[in-house]
Each structure stands twice: as structure tokens, then as C-alpha cells.
Design a protein that fits this description.
mainly alpha, rod-shaped, 3 helices
Amino acid sequence: MTRHPARIAAALSGVAFVETSPLLAAEEAHDAHHEGAHVASVTELVFPAINFALFAVIVVKYVIPALREYLRRRAEDVTATITQADAALADAEALMASTRTRAQAVAAERASICDDLVTTATRHAERLRAQAEETGKRRLADAALVAEQERRRALGEVRAEVAALATELAESRLRGALSADDQRAFVEEFLEEAPRR
């Protein structure tokens, strides 16, 4: 269209003239019925056609290219905006997917940490129980050993006391049964046998 604006303008003026011709003929027929009606001259018809042709040339030569350039720029702007929006949407979807992945990883890590804590606590409890059992066994063994030592000591004390009482009793009986001469003979005999032992 921009290559042949004069042809387009001429075609539009021709169309306008052709379209106005039946109207003019109808007006002439209508005016013929009226007495003293005004008959349109050629100049009254030509000037509006020239005016329309000039308007058509201005529209074709200036308005349509400017409008086409505006629409082209607007289409480029819309395309660029759509491209940016698509890129932003893709970035948002990627960020959302990354966030979901991180959330799932956090949930898995939280579960793993909980499992590790439970496992560690269980091991620690088992170790403490084993240590408590070992300590209890040691204390029972120590208590049994102390009790055995105390029993032996008590038995030793009882034996010593029994021996002392028996010795005392034997002495008292021997003293009562032995005379002074018997005691002397016994001591002398003991003194004679002591070096041999």
C-alpha cells in the first residue's frame, strides 16, 4: 500500500465519485419535481471529491504507515512482554520446584535427625543400663566380699574369745587339779623340750 499511495487515492476518489453519482441523480430527479429547485453544479461535486481524495492520500501516505509502525512497535512490545513474562514464569516455576525439593529434603533430613537422635539415645540408655548392671554386680560382689571378711573376722574373734575362755577354763581347772610340785615338773619338762622343737 505504501508503494502506490497515489493509485490508492485515485481509486478511493473514483469510488467516492461513483458512489455519489446515484445520489446526485436521485437528488436531480427529486429536484425536478419541485419547482425552482436548485441544480447541483459540477464544481459542487468535484470539490468534495478532491477533498475526499486529498483526505484519502493523507490517510494512506501518513496515517496508515504511522499506525502500522505503532502497531508493529506495540506488537514487539507485547511480544517482549510475553517473552519476559514467560521467562519470569519459568523462573518462578523453577524456584517453586527448588523450594519443593528443599522442603522435601528438609523433611527427610528432619526424619533422619530424629532417627539418629532416637538411635543415639537408645544406645546411650543401653550403655548406661549395662554400666549400672556392671556397677551393681561389682557392688554386690564387694558387699559379698566385705560380708565374707566381716564373717571371717567375727568368726576369728569368736574363736579367739572361745580359745581364750577355753584356755582360761583349762588353766583354772589345771590349777585346781595340779599341785605346786606338778606345776614345777611340768614347767621343767617344757623347758627341756623347748630347745628341741
